[in-house]
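$ ./design --mode recover --in tokens.txt
reading tokens...
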């Protein structure tokens, strides 16, 4: 299939989404669900316009899904403005930590006893499917830095953290599959993949985000060039450097990039004020302001704002806009490709796995966690349902495929993962907007 055909078809998909966005906004369906169905329609099982062999594409699909997750994690970190001492962070820590481990165990047991898979593939698939997705869950996560709703904040923090925390369990699943020397590698796995890699990634990214944010704001205030600086370059640089720095010291790059966005946001809080609105809401950038004169680059009453607030507002607004644009484009591309290959890799056993994961394992785990007063009953039900699986699981799948799986295990992992992710996109895509609308209506009398 020629590159021109790929570009033409995907351009047509983007055009369809652009022209129908005003209609889709009022329908109980997400963009991801539409892209999945469009992918099926233009794939070999439909119009046969696009074909993709995963056997030949695992390497570049691993890197493509990794890039998508990195941008999404960075944007997710930028949106979380609550101080780390706020009690609502414990919702994210509980979801991304102990609850995710229990979810891995639950899916592993379901696969082993329900589908008669051996322990190695069961643990690997459980680890691949355990993390919730930061890319496809935009509707259930925080809207912007002002949003501190417990449900949205908890789901956002979970998605930001668990894509990295799942990594050691994927590695453990690969160790079980390879079998040789597991007893001697166990201590190395605990020390390097758990005790060291998780905090190293978080601390490396957080302080890099704070340091680069502080230096950037100081330079822009001193040189009076806040309105003309290329903040998209800064976002790319911080994502790349946080990822590489964490990897060089044995930390998890996903956690580092998320923490870099979080650290950058905390630096904005320091410059703007914790009790002030987010800086990007104090300063309203004009579209394309990098190409206009500084005195016309912003509108609104900025004369009463401090230089640090103006600089931080323009920087954060640009970064959020750029990161969200890349995130949405990658979402459309990857979910469309998932639809193209879905029918060829459909596994009906995924109905049992998805049903067990979405309707039993995650809701029960959320309900049994000792949340105390952090979450009310209806909020626990919402969080229990909105465990959306997506691009993060696809990355771990392709990572595993590129690390020496046998043909039989590779087939099982591929088919179950793609099928469960597709079911999540459809089920959660159809239910998200009606459920959230009802939740918002019930919240209004209380606020």
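writing sequence...
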């Amino acid at each position: 299939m020629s590159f021109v055909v790929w570009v033409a078809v995907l351009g047509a998909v983007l055009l369809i989404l652009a022209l129908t966005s005003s209609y889709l906004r009022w329908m109980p369906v997400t963009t991801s669900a539409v892209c999945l169905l469009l992918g099926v329609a233009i794939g070999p099982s439909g119009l046969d316009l696009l074909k993709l062999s995963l056997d030949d594409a695992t390497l570049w699909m691993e890197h493509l899904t990794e890039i998508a997750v990195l941008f999404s994690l960075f944007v997710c970190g930028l949106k979380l403005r609550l101080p780390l001492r706020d009690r609502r962070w414990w919702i994210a820590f509980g979801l991304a930590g102990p609850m995710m481990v229990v979810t891995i165990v639950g899916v592993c047991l379901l696969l082993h006893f329900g589908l008669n898979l051996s322990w190695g593939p069961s643990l690997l698939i459980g680890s691949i499917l355990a993390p919730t997705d930061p890319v496809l869950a935009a509707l259930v996560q925080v809207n912007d830095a002002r949003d501190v709703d417990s449900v949205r904040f908890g789901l956002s923090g979970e998605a930001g953290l668990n894509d990295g925390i799942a990594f050691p369990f994927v590695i453990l699943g690969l160790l079980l599959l390879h079998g040789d020397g597991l007893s001697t590698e166990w201590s190395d796995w605990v020390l390097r993949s758990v005790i060291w890699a998780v905090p190293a990634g978080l601390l490396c990214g957080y302080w890099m985000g704070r340091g680069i944010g502080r230096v950037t704001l100081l330079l822009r205030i001193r040189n009076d060039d806040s309105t003309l600086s290329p903040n998209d370059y800064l976002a790319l640089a911080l994502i790349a450097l946080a990822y590489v720095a964490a990897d060089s010291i044995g930390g998890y790059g996903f956690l580092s990039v998320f923490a870099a966005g979080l650290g950058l946001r905390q630096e904005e809080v320091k410059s703007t004020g914790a009790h002030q609105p987010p800086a990007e809401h104090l300063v309203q950038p004009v579209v394309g302001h990098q190409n206009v004169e500084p005195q016309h680059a912003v509108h609104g009453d900025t004369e009463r704002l401090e230089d640090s607030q103006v600089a931080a507002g323009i920087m954060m607004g640009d970064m959020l806009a750029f990161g969200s644009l890349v995130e949405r484009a990658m979402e459309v591309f990857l979910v469309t490709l998932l639809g193209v290959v879905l029918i060829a890799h459909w596994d009906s056993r995924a109905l049992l796995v998805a049903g067990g994961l979405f309707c039993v394992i995650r809701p029960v785990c959320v309900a049994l966690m000792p949340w105390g007063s952090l979450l009310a009953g209806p909020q626990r039900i919402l969080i229990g349902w909105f465990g959306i699986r997506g691009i993060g699981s696809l990355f771990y799948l392709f990572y595993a495929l590129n690390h020496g799986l046998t043909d039989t295990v590779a087939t099982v992992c591929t088919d179950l993962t793609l099928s469960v992710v597709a079911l999540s996109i459809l089920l959660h895509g159809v239910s998200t907007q009606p459920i959230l609308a009802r939740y918002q209506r019930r919240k209004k009398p209380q606020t």
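exit 0
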